[in-house]
Amino acid sequence: MSNSLSIEQQARAAKAYVLQELRKTSAGQQILDDVDFFERLDMNFITVFAIFAELYGYRHDCLDQLVDLITMCGTSWQARAPELRDLDKARELDPEWYMSNKMLGGVCYVKQYGKDFEGIKARIPYFQELGLTYLHLMPLFLAPKPFSDGGYAVSSYRDVDPELGDINQLKELATELRKAGISLVLDLVFNHTSNEHRWAKKAAEGDPEHSAMYWVFPDRNVPSAFERCTREIFPDDHPGSFIQLADGRYIWSTFYHFQWDLNYSNPTVFRSMAAEMLFLANLGVDFFRMDAVAFMWKQMNTDCENLPEVHKLLRAFNALCRIAAPSVLFKSEAIVHPDFVVQYIDRYECQLSYNPLQMALTWEALATRDASMLSQAIERRHNITRGCAWVNYVRSHDDIGWTFSDEDAKELGKDGGSHRKFLNAFFVNRHPGSFARGVPFQDNPRTGDCRISGTTASLAGLESMQGHAIDRILLAYSIAMSTGGIPLIYLGDEVGQLNDYSYLNDQSKMDDSRWVNRPSYPEQRYHERHDESTIPGQIYKGMKHLIALRKSTEELAGGRAVGFFTGNETVLGYQRPGTGSTVLCLCNFSDYGQWVGRDRFMGLPPSARDLVTGYDVALREGIELKPHQFVWLRY
Ligand code: GLC
After folding, report:
1. Which three-class secondary structure state does DSSP give residue 212?
2. Which of helix, strand or coil describes residue 610?
3. Which residues line ligand 1 (CB under 6 A)?
4. pLDDT digits (tens, 9 = 90+) for 376-421
5. Given 401, 433, 619, 630, which residue has the most CB atoms within 10 angstroms?
6. Is 291 part of the annotated catalytic residue set?
7. What number of CA atoms fall less than 13 Å from residue 130's CA on the CB side?
8. Given a cut of 80, is residue 94 above it in pLDDT?
9. What is the mean pLDDT of residues 562-588?
10. Is-catalytic flag, 333?
């Protein structure tokens, strides 16, 4: 590849070479004869080529790797089921289908929530009752036992955990979900594999080709040099970013010692993971949750997080989907500083992204009874590229980390470090008057870092029985349901599931407090969900009301929230402009009634309908909100 040519010229030459190589075999010719495939290849080749050339152009085998990659895409497209191809076509005609206000997500572990794939299938009628259109099944692949980081240490991307069923049952489940109008979301854990993956085992045996798929070094020199700048992610497990192999070599392991980071500076890794991704796409996956994206590229003298090459990799993976599984979209899991979170959100990269800042600051506001930080985040950090959507959640299977920006906090007179300390103390009930019953996660006295585990109900006060807990749960979910994008319910939250401390009796879980918030299906609570005299019944009723409101309020579709200054720091305000009408949301974080003065509503009509209660509210008089009350005012 000569540098004197423009990228278009180089791409044209490379394409001619790839086509010529493919035409050499009848299988290759067949791939090119497929008009749909050829058209999509034509549209996306330059993206794939440009990134490939940038990342791997220095290698003599770059073009041949590209031929293999395109051949693999073609083979994968040929294997794509007709109903998935139909879906590809339908979504090409309606590319923003996921921006609808009818979208509602749920997330669960297969084992905990349904025992196995058949059990999850049996819960589809419930998912429909709740109104789900999107279901994230937590990692379900073959993984080491008993330690697997909740399945995030994958031993094979083509085999599932045998306790859950087999790959055909997963495919059937995907089909059944699709028939029920529910998209399937699976994790693409592509930063690392488990140490029991075939590639990892060969690397551990010293095989050079497989060692080159990971970051392996003969001694501690290079690892120590890298570690001067990298962060410790799971310090309870091992300090630094490397662990030592049995033969004395060192291997990169950002998370647990049995999760080994893949080396994407090797094109074989890119090609191999692309093949795994397209295999999974053909099972009927609608969205990939791109796990731990921030860590995928390493560069000496940097913190090895959020590097520009990660974005290139994501764009290249995305382009491959456009070629061979066009309806598949990406959701980024980047739980990092907000400046970096937004960098992953792009039509050509990740169309969806978790909104970790809004999640954390909702809890922050509940603890402080002060909505200023959350309000500032909506004002300043909510805007994302058109056509992309936040996934707004109240909690996940993971810990809660206080990922706000210190600069933002400073503007509001808060010191980031001490505020995080306060929040950690508050949420683990080490602060007088705390209602929360969380558990510390990765408490690192050396760096002062700590995060919080706990279910929504336990963090909101249901476990400590201090009052207002149900209101807090509903307030938090009302924000996730109305700020734009797709709301995501951790299944069990809708019936007020509490912390599960049984993990402390299980050797394989006791050192990872996140298991406190990954409980089993709460049979009794679901049983009581239609009985309003019970706590689960009251929470369920409130959640169902919110869901129904969301689904009938078109202003809440996709898009983003626009800040609204309430003049009262305990009351959060934001607007959702629609066509011809706007919904103004106000949320009182205080344990007491609060006023939003009439001057705040100047320029608005004299009254507005509160969609939550169904009553008209006289804006010209100002509004009084009860403790933890939220209103959705349409004008
Ligand atoms: C993601 C997962 C988390 C896991 C980590 C390593 O952050 O959400 O559970 O421990 O990746 O795969």
Report:
1. coil
2. strand
3. 149-150, 152, 189, 255, 291-292, 333, 398
4. 999 999 999 999 999 999 999 999 999 999 999 999 999 999 999 9
5. 630
6. yes
7. 29
8. yes
9. 97
10. yes
